[in-house]
Amino acid sequence: MSVTELKERHIAATETVNNLRERLKQRRLSLLDTDISGYAKSQGRTPVTFGPTDILCCRTLQGHTGKVYSLDWTSEKNRIVSASQDGRLIVWNALTSQKTHAIKLPCAWVMTCAFSPTGQSVACGGLDSVCSIFNLNSPTDRDGNLNVSRMLSGHKGYVSSCQYVPGEDTHLITGSGDQTCVLWDITTGLRTSVFGGEFQSGHTADVLSISINGTNSKMFVSGSCDSTARLWDTRVASRAVRTFHGHEGDVNSVKFFPDGNRFGTGSDDGTCRLFDIRTGHQLQVYYQPRRDTEMAHVVTSIAFSISGRLLFAGYTNGDCYVWDTLLAKVVLNLGSLQNSHEGRISCLGLSADGSALCTGSWDTNLKIWAFGGIRKVI
Amino acid sequence: MSPAPEYSFAVEYDGPPISYDLPRALPITVDNIPVASVVSQVPLSDTLSLPVVQPLLPPHHHTVKELKTLSSESRVSKELELASERTVSPTSVIAFDHRASQINVCELSGELSSSGPFDLSNGNDGSGECEFSDVCDSSRLLEESSSSELRGGVCRSTRSFNTMEFNALGVSNDDEKESFDFNELNLNQQDWCSTESVLSLEYPSTRVSSLKAEDCDGRRVPAVSFNVDYDDDDDGDLNEEFDVEETVTRPVRREPLTKGKKGSCYRCFKGNRFTDKEVCLVCDAKYCSNCVLRAMGSMPEGRKCVTCIGFPIEESKRGNLGKCSRMLKRLLNQLEVRQIMKAERFCEANQLPPDYISVNGKPLSYEELITLQNCTNPPKKLKPGNYWYDKVSGFWGKEGQKPSSIISPHLNVGGPIQPDASNGNTQVFVNGREITKVELRMLQLAGVQCAGNPHFWVNEDGSYQEEGQKNTRGYIWGKAGTKLVCAFLSLPVPSKSSNSIGEQHSNMASRSIPDYLEHGIVQKLLLVGCSGSGTSTIFKQAKILYKSIPFSEDEHENIILTIQSNVYTYLGILLEGRERFEDEILADLKKSQSCVLDTTGTSPKPDDKTIYSIGPRLKAFSDWLLKTMASGKLDAIFPAATREYAPLIEELWNDAAIKATYERRSELEMLPSVASYFLERAVKILRTDYEPSDLDILYAEGVTSSNGLACVEFSFPQAASEETMDTTDQHDSLASRYQLIRVHARGLGENCKWLEMFEDVEMVIFCVSLSDYDQFSVDGNKMILSMKFFETIVTHPTFEHMEFLLILNKFDLFEEKIEQVPLTKCDWFSDFHPITSRNRTNSNSNSINNNPSLGHLASHYIAVKFKRLYSSLTGRKLYVSVVKGLEPGSVDASLKYAKEILKWNEEKPNFNSSEYSMYSTEASSFSH
Q1: What pLDDT is attached to residue A199?
Q2: Of A134, A158, A159, which to mutate for an interface test with B (greatest number of B Cβ within 10 Å)?
């Protein structure tokens, strides 16, 4: 079989796949009789209302000298770890807004960070293609720096995202620019399983974000530059459980819905979407139409409130919309509030108890937002 | 045919040399002038610049009288009354003229003379430095005599004064912010607030601390007491004075409100002078334990109000830096306190501004201050002021006073020492300084003959000799009693840690730059290029060129392993090829034999011995190697394999079959071009005691971490010629640090998410392999791919205003190749029709001006192609450098070129545009 013949067959096969995919999409659309907001409206639900002072910036965490790229909360206590372009990880006490650790990183180009479930260690990854683990309890060296306690190396591209498996301090999942996700065993420093890459159903471009299902830690979802999100089962590395199409741009952020049956995505196309992992359907698009022809602002990061009713989405222009997930309405823009960020919102995170939201921005600050009004029963 | 080609012929000849020479001409001219001014600006930019400050002062002084007339808003008027009230009291006048005398404003001198205690200062008017010390003395006197109440008055009046000024200027707009804060406080009754109040509840606000009570009033006089610290430094004084004024205003605006209760918190106005409070390092605002965390936020620069962040601290509080109060310790946990104190001590804004310190009459530069502070034996508790420093012996003291300490000698700080530095009158000189009486006394007690007013040379070890004489007369510290005497006369003794010079220098070299300096000093160069363009070679070359230890031990170890496993891989490919060739030959043989069989009908003796056959021992090795390679476990078995198989390799390499295969290596697609370099050295490399040479490392694949990013920090070694050219270059020895960042091409494509991270690089060095023009990958011609990649990088928004340097790499390979393969093989270069001289001689192919070789012509052509592409995309000029990656000199030259471009960019505004255009004669006249 000659090369040209192979190429032709390849093209033909690609076309077939695309046709099938298109038909699948059509079929899905025909089955999808309504979206959440349509149904909610028909049920007479009204959006959540917020007064201008209901959500307030109650802390500003200053201390980074570079753009903040990532943050993560501990599952207990109110601590935050943040990663910035100044080459530092800072562990904050969110209540006092003070730093407890400032870790100088060997590679300054850090893209992601994560707190371990017990809060004993933090992980970070970046352009050095290595995921580094720091034990917060280990003694510091002469200059007061913490040493890397474990290097997870094996990725062939930058580490774009990392998250500890809930309840396990020894397992971590990373997403990488080499199109794969990897489940690591931290004690040995070896890869337990690799998702994607050489396998057929993996991502075809850089993985940008991952999120582990909070209710079933065997499942995780990944978002990628190939504008898809994929659902994986950590026990079955060979293929993705499901691929979610729909976005028209890179999927920058994925986050599981609190109930674990849905997940949200944020993308370069300026939309957030909600997908159902059981049906594989797209449930809702969250998109604020622009007045004129200006480009939609890219969604950089998303987070759900503890009930799932609110979706926080950070945008490149410094906006941070609070969406009512039920009615697909923007109920508040944190970017327009007093004391808001001056740069792009690069990361978002909700504290474990859901009482506070932390945003990280390119203006080098992190801000903590909390409900300031009188709570009404919705 | 005759005239036209001749004309174009001439043009062809002219074009390339110009574009090539030009870069060299440019940096040399730039070098002389620019560097000096750059350096002088560095320290200025770091402190709050003086020039901006001064214009504000005169109106401020005029307001003495305006104050009364300036009744305005309801809130301010209250302050005003207060202020005007105070102006009547004599002390407030003092506050004013105190400042006035510093700036030598004469308007107020009348008033000055009327106030009694200030006669002194008036009398000294115009006598320079002395005046200030006198002023301070008198003010000290005043302070002592006047009651604390009065002092409070002084302070308050000046403060309200400042508030006025800043209101008028509209500088302070934190009014809204404050009110917002309060809102927040009141509204936020959520857990956030409550948790905090729980925190604070533990500490009753009525806690009495006698220490603090004392402070309550005493601390009120920062503006005045501050000057006491400044004996003599005119410049610093002014500057500092202003800083204090500027920042003092903000919290003080609330002063009228707190008036009722002195010593209450600046934020909640509760508490009294006995309440435990934390003080802002900048503006002296005091907060109670309830408010301190809100007012100071996350304290990125230590204990400063949120609004004071970024401002230099008050000098009188420098001693408190990093000293934690009990309150903070109670409020926060130990880790948090440690971080705050660390930030406080090491953040950039809190560092001592270098021009506040002058040594031997010369204000220090940034670098000098660093040298001073980081020497093995630095002066302790360095405060702003004028100092003298004896570089030979290391004596250090305040100007006009006896030595206070002995620091590391031979530091290159400040000017030469003045004979009257310590204001001595003994006529005995030590290292050119007239010593004080106390010192003379000590010398006499130490048994030094001081008759006849001798001039001594004293070295750092205490050995002394008379000026102009060779022999050492003795050692000052030789006698046991000397140090005792010194202690008695409160003279310094050398510290035990004083080291020899050599040791010190090695310390200097290994010393890492403090964190707060790193920022902004390292210039970052981003090195990108398609895979195979030689970025890693250039990176390695830079490491070898500029680092004293290019590779750490670990790296070295890794390099050896990488090279060796590479060689095994190459061998494996070779062996695989051998098998293939053998099979082919056998198949051929069989065919011919079967032909023979058909014709003759006799069964031939099976003879499978071909030229590619190997013995059983080697065969076993070959099978093993191929098997491990196929399973991908080559790395895992590695180090052991070297020991076991090293002898076999030699045998294998000398085997005829391998030799024959090696001859046909061009048929093995898998074998990279560098393989032959290593295979020819295989025997040597695969020994256990193999030490890679620089060239080996340069050739080796995969030595720099191929997965991610690698960076190396270096500074260009000072060439001898450079040193003589301008001394200012020494100045930026610290400033001219470069960081070469090499990123892997993977993922650099269109949807590259992280290129934004490199927005702080100074320059992008884009690497293209010249020899790629006839290479093809799956996606097409490699040169075209490089070009497209170049386009995406250049047009990336992050690099919109960035300078680009194009490195045309592998010129050596290209030169060879161009003779065989026409450049037009690449579609982009289809219009390359070089016109070469008919009587071309190969001997002088290097002299581009006379008779450019085809290689030079083609490289210039490619350079122009890229330049045009670049200017069509950005409208700017692309810098190009042709490089042979394997030659250190070549890479060195191009990196130096990068440095010159950066320097030139800094200096460009200083030249007018016409001059600039003169330099930018591009080779755009290149025609074809």
Answers
A1: 58
A2: A158
Q: What is the pLDDT of residues B800-823, one digit of tens each?
A: 888 899 999 888 888 888 888 888
**In a shared domain, residues B571 and B642:** yes
In the prediction, which pLDDT does A314 show? 94
Cα atoms in the 13 Å half-sphere on the side-chain side of B584 = 9
| CB-CB under 8 Å, A99 with B336 | yes
* Best of B196, B515, B753, B779 to mutate (most A CBs within 10 Å, chain A): B753
Note the pLDDT of residue A230: 93
Residue ranges per structural domain of chain A: 1-31, 41-371
Task: Nearest by CB to B298, from A61, A101, A252: name it.
Answer: A61
Identify whether B76 is part of a domain. no
- Reported as half-sphere exposure (CB side, CA atoms, 13 A), residue B666 has a value of 1
Number of domains in chain B: 4
- Mind telling me how many Å the CA of A280 is from chain B's nearest CA? 26
Q: Are residues B367 and B404 in the same domain?
A: yes
CB pairs under 8 A between A and B: 134
Give the rounded percent of residues in chain A with a pLDDT score beyond 90: 50
What was the pLDDT predicted at B126? 39
Rounded-to-integer distance, Cα B96 and Cα B66, Å: 14
Nearest to B665 by CA among B679, B651, B650: B679
Last residue of a domain, one of B489, B514, B534: B489
For chain B, report the end-to-end CA distance as a whole number of angstroms: 15
Residue B644: how many other CB atoms lie within 10 Å: 10
The predicted pLDDT at position A375 comes to 56
Cross-chain residue pair A107–B708, CB shorter than 8 Å: yes
Q: Is B809 annotated as a binding residue?
A: yes
Structural domain including B863 reads: 522-551+707-717+736-832+853-910
Give the mutation candidate from A7, A96, A107 for the B interface (greatest B CB count, under 10 A): A96
Same domain, B754 and B871: yes
Write down the pLDDT at residue A161.
94
Residue B330 sits in the same domain as residue B364: no
Same domain? B527 vs B672: no
Nearest to A159 by CA among A185, A186, A132: A132
Q: Which residues of B touch A67 (CB under 8 A)?
A: 757
Residue B758 lies in a domain: yes
Give the residue on A whose Cα is nearest the Cα of B341: A99
Identify the pLDDT of residue B165: 39
- Copy the structure tokens of residue B813: 């390979």
Cβ-contact A306, A75 below 8 angstroms? no
Contact yes or no for B339 and A208 at CB 8 A: no
Q: Are residues B824 and B884 in the same domain?
A: yes
Superfamily of domain A41-371: YVTN repeat-like/Quinoprotein amine dehydrogenase (2.130.10.10)
CA–CA dist A303, A218 (Å, integer) = 20
- Structural domain ending residue among the three candidates B350, B377, B408: B350
ipTM over 0.90: no
- Evaluate whether residue B163 is within a structural domain: no
Using a CB–CB cut-off of 8 Å, the residues of B that contact A are: 180, 183-184, 187-188, 190-193, 195-196, 199, 293, 297-300, 306, 309, 331-333, 335-336, 339-340, 342-343, 515, 519, 705, 707-709, 711, 743-744, 746-747, 751, 753-754, 757, 760
Q: Which residue has the higher pLDDT, B740 or B746?
A: B740
Please check whether residues B285 and B360 belong to one and the same domain. Answer: no
The CATH number of whichever domain residue B652 belongs to comes to 1.10.400.10
Of A58-67, A330-339, A361-370, B178-187, the one with minimum mean pLDDT is B178-187
Q: What is the pLDDT of residues B690-738, one digit of tens each?
A: 788 888 888 887 666 556 678 888 877 765 444 444 444 444 444 567 8
Of the candidates B80, B227, B223, the one whose C-alpha atom is nearest the C-alpha of residue B163 is B80
Query: Which residues in chain A have Cβ-Cβ distances shorter than 8 Å to B184?
Result: 56, 58, 372
Which pLDDT does position B20 carry in this prediction?
Answer: 54
Q: Is A180 helix (H, G, I), strand (E, B) or coil?
A: strand
A160 touches chain B (CB under 8 A): yes
- According to DSSP, the β-strands at A242-244 and A121-126 are unpaired
**What is the structure's pLDDT at B281?**
85
Q: What is the average pLDDT value for chain B, to the nearest integer? A: 66
Q: Is residue B10 part of a domain?
A: no
Co-location of B747 and B883 in the same domain: yes
Task: Read off the pTM.
Answer: 0.69
